[in-house]
Amino acid sequence: MSFGKMTEFISLQKKTVGKDADGFPEERYGEPIRIRAYKEDKNGSRKWANFAEVSAASSMFQFRYIPGVEITKDYVIRY
Is pLDDT at 47 greater than 80 in this prediction? Predict the structure, then answer.
């Protein structure tokens, strides 16, 4: 994927669940990683069916490898 197609800026943040002062579960988000990405909206192509991790997804983002960061399902995309 060339940089020419990566026109969207996104933030990746790692989501963790902790407890607040009263002991209730609380979602916390880590430091954002700002990167360029290619965004493709959902369509019926075979490529989309193979790439989509979750069937309820409506957009797919592609970005380059970030050295030293392991991207998992714990990360959320802020667009």
Answer: no
